[in-house]
Every structure is written in structure tokens, then in C-alpha cells.
Amino acid sequence: MTTVWNAQRVSAGLNEIEIARPAVLGRIKQLLDDYHGNSRSARYYDILLGDWCERFLHLVFVATQDLASESTARNEKSFESVSRSEIVVASDTLEFFTNYQKLPESVLATLRALIAFGPTKILISGAPSVIKNSTPMGRRNKVIAKFLKIVLSNQSEKVLFVRPFSGSVPTSWVRAMISWRLWAKHDDLDIKYVVNVTPDKTWRQKNILEIQQSSSLSEVSNALISAYLPLVLVEGYGAIQTQVLAARPNRPRHLYSSQSLWAHLEFKVLAAEWCEHGTKLHYHQHGGWYGLDELHVGERYECRVSDTYFTWGWSRGDKNTRPLSPVTPRIKNQKKLYDSLICFDQPQQIYRLQYFPLPGTLQTMYDQVAEFVKLRNSETQLNIRLFPGEYGSAQYQKIISARPGAKFDKSLDIVKQYFDSRIVIHSYLGTTWLETLSHNIPTVSFYDPESYRFRPDAKSLIDALANVGILHISGRSAAEHLNQIDGDVETWWMSEGVQLARRQFTQSFANFSSDWKSQWEQEFARLLKS
């Protein structure tokens, strides 16, 4: 029977993971200190592989739940069919993350074998690997990065900005960097390295531990962790660290990013090393869910390792949490050529726990989207933008069944699509609805309340959006509302009640500003003085 991963079950899982994480990070520190012959701080390892540890814990938790739900797991005879498990170690964290569709079954098979037969049945593949820089940049960004490096080559190392936004570099950022040249530099740390690595099977296998079926999540995770640690963190780390540090020998006083704590190895190596010697790490929220979710592991991780954590308006009372607008494109004149429906999707295999549609609730989201496109009645063309990624055709088929002539298009940059839309509809509550709300683009969103759980202090603002028709808990409700306002979307959107609800919400959760540059100047002047 398929597990329904609704908000209640996600909460239970996240609570277990919160309890297990300190012990698992402690085990990582112990293993890697021993392997590398060093004694580094817990924060060093958290910066370096806190992202990997988080995903690993989620995979192990899901595997323990799947094992517990299998009828054969309660029958010792069932272990007769369990085979030895061979693990192909990922080269780096990015490879580990991109294998999300295969990893759940791999971890479950490994767990079965470990419980049935002990560590001797867990084999490590000994195939050698060539590890290279895995963060290529687009051509335009490369040209701009080279230009900024030349222009700012002889300037201060006070503040180093690394990937301060996603996507293409805006012209406004280039102008900002030139005007800040006395105290700031931009460097995306596209450092080239090549390392030949062979897995240390002996070390990895000797550190696999015995477990029982009743073992806790931290015990199970610690038993398996040496088998799954990516090669870059163990066998290849010394050589990579040497090359990366040699490529960037000058340590800045302050280091900023909003993208690089997840799978950007060169940034993480430098950040971990530099922070050990006094550099201050400043990190910025880069997407939706942050601040709104009752518990968001990405938010907890990024805030935990940062000296200052910048948000899109919210705060949890932490002394290092500060609101700061992200880099914001200028508002453009909307052409209002069509309506847009922005869709969300996920794989059928669960690989992380978060408050959004997951296996067991994905079908509800597909049904809501299909109901919306079927009931929407307008002469304005609807452009449907499916979520990027290969997740199968279930959502597409649902939409086509409901509306055979549906038009799908994601050829435009998504921000340009926002500005060209008369109204933007979102089938989930992620980053995109915050972006359109912040830019004051007419916005309607619908979601399944069984998939989401909000912070208590966000509830009144969420309710206010629902009361004015921005937020809906079904595709039907959203379609009926759109049909009602179709004759004059602008009148509804600019009404006093709608704008008040929008402003109050965005002030806390999507506080984007065209005046972001002056905000940053004031904030970094404060940091430099301190």
C-alpha cells in the first residue's frame, strides 16, 4: 500500500530528523577527523556537507518507514530472499542529489541487507572515478564574470559576493559592483580541478555498524554513513582542498551568497576554511517556503551555519536573522498577452520531506490542476508552464484529458512570462507566487491543505489572502473566482482589500524592492563597521 506523505506524516518525519541530526553530524566529524588526521570544528563540517547530511537523513528515514510497512519485514524467513547490497559511491554531492530517483530503493536495499546479515553483506564498489569541477556557467555569465574580475582585480577583499542570485546576471548588478568596487568583489568561484579517486573500500566497510530493526534513526544513519559519503568529502578531499585554496589565496573579511551552500563544492570548501580563520558568512534566502513552513530544513541549515541570515522579510527572533530585499529586477510594462498557469511536480519516489505535494498527495494536485483548466472559462489564452524536470507524464495527461486543446509553453524566461501575463495562476505555494505577489502582478494560487503546514504567525496573513480571492484550497474555487473577475481583472486586483492583504503579506514573506541596492549598501556598511 502506498504511503500517503501528507503534512501530518511529514511533520512526524521532520521531528525525528531534528532529533537525529546532531548525532549524525557528530559521527561525520568523528569519521572525517580520523580519516584526514585533523580536528576541525562542527561548523566546518556543517558548512561542508550539511546539505548532504540533510538529504541522507531524509533518505534513511523514508527507508526505515518503508521497511517497517513491509509485511515481509516482520517475518524472519523473508530475509532469505535478501541479496548482498553493493553501493556505488557518488563522486560529489551534486551527483548524489541528481540520483534522487534511484537512491530511495538503493538505501532500502542496503538497509534490508544490513539488518538481515550485518555489515559483511554491504559491498562498496571499487571503481575509480575522475572528479572535476561540476558547476559550469552559462556563456553570458562567464563573460560578465570575467569582465568583473578584470575591472575589480586590484580592489579590496572586504566583501566577496558569490552567486548572489539565480539565473542570468542583471545589468543592475554589474553597475552595483562597479560602484562598490572599493569594498566589494564578485566571484562565482568557477575553479577548475581534476582529481583521480579510488574508493577506500576498507575504511568505508570497517565503519559500517551493526543495527537492529528497532534501532533509532540516528543509529541507522550512523551505521550506513561511511558507505554513502561522497568521494569528494573523503578520498578526494585533500587534493581538492589544496587546489581550491591555491586558486583563491586571499581570504575576505565577509563572504556572501544566496545559492552556494547547496552542492557548490568550491564555495563550501572556501567558506569552511575561511570561517575557521575569522571570515563572516552572510547567506540569503533564495526561494519560497522559507519562513512560511512550520519547519523548513533548508532554512534551518542555512541559518545555522551563517553569521547573518538575510530573509525576504520574516524573522524567527534569531539574533542573526535580518530582513533584506533580494536582488530585484525592475518592473516592466506588462503586455498582458495571455494568462499563465505555473505548475509544480515531484517524482513518485520520495527523497526528501517538505510541506508540498509528495507521493500520496501528488495525485490530489494533479486532480486540482485538471479541474482548474476544465472549469476556467475565458477567451484569454492560458499558457501552462510545467515544472522543470523529468517526473513522468501524469500531470500532462491529466491536463490534456481535462482540456484537449491546452497550450503548454515554457520557452520564455519565467520572469518575462510573469510580466507578459494578464494574471498568473500557481498550482502550489513555492517561489513563483511570492515573485508575482511582490511585483504586484495579478496572482491567484490554489493548493491542497493536506500537503502544507504554515507557521502560526503566518496564519492570519494567509487567511487574509484567502478572504480576498488570491488564495484557494481547490482548483474549482480558483477557476470559479477567475470566471467571476474575467471581465476586469485589474479592477479586482487594484481594489483596496486585495492590495492591503497583498502588501501586508509581502512585507513579511516577499519583501522585494527596486531600491534593493541602497538597502544592501546600508547593510554591508553596518557589517564592515562591526
> Structural class, from helix and strand content?
alpha/beta
Tally the helices: what do you get?
20
Q: In the residues, how many domains can be counted?
A: 3
Can you tell me the residue ranges where pLDDT is under 50 for at least 5 consecutive residues? none
Specify the overall morphology.
globular
Main sheet summary: 6 strands, parallel
Short description:
The chain is built from 20 helices and 16 strands. With 530 residues, it is of the alpha/beta class.
Give me the secondary-structure topology.
Elements: H1 7-36, H2 42-69, E1 85-87, H3 93-98, H4 103-117, E2 122-124, E3 129-132, H5 139-151, E4 159-162, H6 171-179, E5 184-186, E6 194-197, H7 201-206, H8 217-228, H9 237-247, E7 254-257, H10 265-276, E8 280-284, H11 297-305, E9 308-311, E10 321-323, E11 338-342, H12 362-375, E12 382-385, H13 394-402, E13 407-408, H14 414-419, E14 421-426, H15 432-438, E15 443-446, H16 459-467, E16 471-472, H17 475-485, H18 489-493, H19 496-509, H20 516-529
Parallel strand pairs: 1-2, 4-5, 4-7, 7-8, 8-9, 9-10, 11-12, 11-14, 12-13, 14-15, 15-16
Antiparallel strand pairs: 3-6
